[in-house]
Amino acid sequence: MKRFAAYIAALIAAVSCIYPYTPDLGEENEIRLVIDGDIVLGGLSTFTFSSTMPLNSMLPNSGRYPEVKAALWIEDDKGVEYPKGLNHSKLEYETKATIDMSDASSDRQYRIHCKVKNLGEKHDLEYVSEWESFVESPKVTSVDYSYDNKSVFVNLSVEGGATYSKWDYTELWQYKADYIATLIFNERTRQVEDGEPEYAHSTCWKSESAKLFGLGTYQNQSSDALLNQRLCQIPRNDKRLSFADKFSVSVCGLSESAYQYLQNLLTISTLTGSLFAPSPEDMRGNISNVSDPDEFVIGYVSVVKPTLYTYYLIPDKDVYTPDKLPELFVPNIRQYDLVTWYRRGFVPVMEDTVNEGGTESTQVLWGEKRCVDCTQLGGTIVKPEDWPL
Predict the structure, then answer these.
(1) Which residues of 213-224 are buried (b: 16+ CB within 10 A; e: fewer)?
(2) How much is the average pLDDT of 36-51?
């Protein structure tokens, strides 16, 4: 849910324009708190704090939304607080809170309790979520892939557990640069020399989280199973298919109210403008201000124990259909000298022998730096410790 927080105010504006009325969301210049995270039994619970911006306001000079810092803890219905040994007189206010719930019992109810240092012109605010019980997560029965002429589809199947569920995933894949550079440009001498440049990173790994979570329900079904639910769609020319793509899948059971909240959030975020679409008011979750219950807070805190599943997508031969390699070229030194080409992001890649009229000559082919440096596409050259290949 965290990927919606940064643009949630814009989504509210877009959806509200569809309706011939203005929902009662409080003052137009009100900054709204966004709390994103779940109480994860048996593991680490991570919560992030952010805020929406008033529609008529401008971002600060930094170009970022105002920072929200809060102190958060979790409590159960027996009075136990997490983290253990919390000192309420020395609370630490951060933009993110991570709490160890590895020894928390699934037979209790839980809620979050947090204090926000500032929210716009408001200060020293206190919030709690509603008491929630643990909801059993489905079992993952399979993850596999199918494909057509254009795309590869990664599909998830689950069974059992709660009637309602949510799934999410992260990806980690290996890929290579288009070319291996064997030449260096020396800015001091303005000459191309033999050698392997420091930026010539040929193999990289890159990780990304899903842009949207998925939701499912057994309601109105004859069995407690969901088959071939779409995790993601990958174009067949995507480098994610070139070697291996690791999917770390997480599936959580949900209460009906949590499911409905997230369904509304998905509907609004994808700008579904039917007459029966939820209003922005439906984005109000189960978190409230202790002293002002009418304050509009965005976020829903569930108590979950995710089912984790790892899947390596290694496509069959010919499934990956890469684009043509980027063309290399001989720089036109009448347009720019070699220093200018280099500073504009182009680098020497390799030598090429040409035959013109029976006479052989050697020329240096250049290309964009991203052609020989896989980190230019956002990856890292550090191989993950658990990477099997």
Answers:
(1) bbbbebeeeeee
(2) 95
DSSP for 188-243 reads TTTEEEES--TT---EEEEEEE-SS-EEEE-TT-SSSEEEEEEEEEEETT-GGGSS
First to last CA, the chain: 32
Confidence at residue 25, expressed as pLDDT on a 0 to 100 scale: 44
Cβ–Cβ < 8 Å for 163, 218: yes
Q: Count the neighbouring beta carbons within 10 Å of the beta carbon of residue 382.
A: 8
CA distances, 272 to each of 15, 57, 233 (Å): 8, 25, 20
Token digits of residue 183: 């030449």
Closest CA to 138 of 74, 44, 221, 47: 221
At 288-316, the pLDDT tens digits run: 999 999 898 999 999 999 999 999 999 99
Residue 325: partners with Cβ closer than 8 Å, 6 or more residues away: 178, 179
Decide: helix, strand or coil at residue 32.
Answer: coil
**C-alpha to C-alpha distance for 90 and 126, rounded to whole angstroms:** 16
pLDDT for residue 51 is more than 50 = yes
Tokens read off for 79: 């009075």
Question: Phi/psi class of residue 120: alpha, beta or left (left: φ > 0; alpha: ψ in -120 to 50)?
Answer: left
Band (57; pLDDT cuts 50, 70, 90)? low
Q: How many CB atoms lie within 10 A of CB 202?
A: 16
Beta strands 44-51 and 33-36 are antiparallel
- Model pTM score: 0.82
Q: Cα torsion for 268, 271, 273, 279, to the nearest 10°?
A: 20
pLDDT at 12: 41
For position 268, what pLDDT does the model report? 76
Select from 54, 58, 37, 51 the least CA-distant residue to 116: 51
Query: What's the chain's average pLDDT?
Result: 87
Encoded tokens for 30: 């009100």
